[in-house]
Amino acid sequence: MANNLESQVGEVVSVSRSATHTFSKETVEVIRLLVGLGVEGDAHMGKTVKHRSRVAQNPNQPNLRQVHLVHSELFDELRSAGFHVEPGQMGENITTRGINLLGLPIGTKLYIGEIAVVEITGLRNPCIQIDNFQSGLLNAVLDHDENGNLIRKAGVMAIVLTGGEIRVGDLVRVDLPPEPFRALERV
Fold it and tell me: What is the predicted pLDDT for the residue at 111?
């Protein structure tokens, strides 16, 4: 497993941000990642959690959701199921291609562009807002494995370890944590 995952090299196909708590984010030319905070100018930037439902539970919990990444292959899958979703529309900051984001373990580092590094903290837990965007989309981004376990396909969350600018076309390189690997869980 390690060799297959670690040898992955992908690319950034889109970058997005939103200064307000909107479901979709505006695609832009470049985003700047800030160490320990997230995407400059994004509503989810900060040391403590900014996701509104989590703030309501405990506004002092650390922000493990500083950067949201989605694999563009999900959009291909959704398109074949009759949905039309473009980069940024599911609220992600970075849309990638060529990396199995959902198959990476907790603690994986992604080296993006020239200097930026993010560490994957877990899975995005899709909510009913997705159905408000397109009816039936929530069920389309959820699945079950052969044992009946829920599979969340709406991307991964990360924290910023090394800041820097991210642009379309930047390479993304995978650096796995030491084994034993811990499977992604919702954050």
Answer: 98
Q: Is residue 111 part of a domain?
A: yes
Q: Which pLDDT score is estimated for 105?
A: 98
Quote the mean pLDDT of the chain. Answer: 94
Tell me which residue has tokens 């100018």: 41
Nearest to 174 by CA among 153, 187, 152, 156: 156
Q: What percent of the chain has pLDDT over 90?
A: 86
Question: Which pTM was predicted?
Answer: 0.94
Long-range contacts of 149-153 (CB under 8 A, 24+ apart): 151/102, 152/102, 152/123, 152/124, 152/125, 152/126, 152/186, 153/74, 153/77, 153/102
Range of the domain at 146: 2-175
CATH classification of the domain holding 62? 2.40.33.20
List beta partners, residue 12: 96
What's the first-to-final CA gap in the chain, in angstroms?
Answer: 24
- Using alpha carbons, list the distances in angstroms from residue 58 to 46, 55, 63, 157: 14, 5, 11, 19
- Report how far apart, in Å, the C-alpha atoms of 141 and of each of 124, 138, 152 are: 11, 5, 6
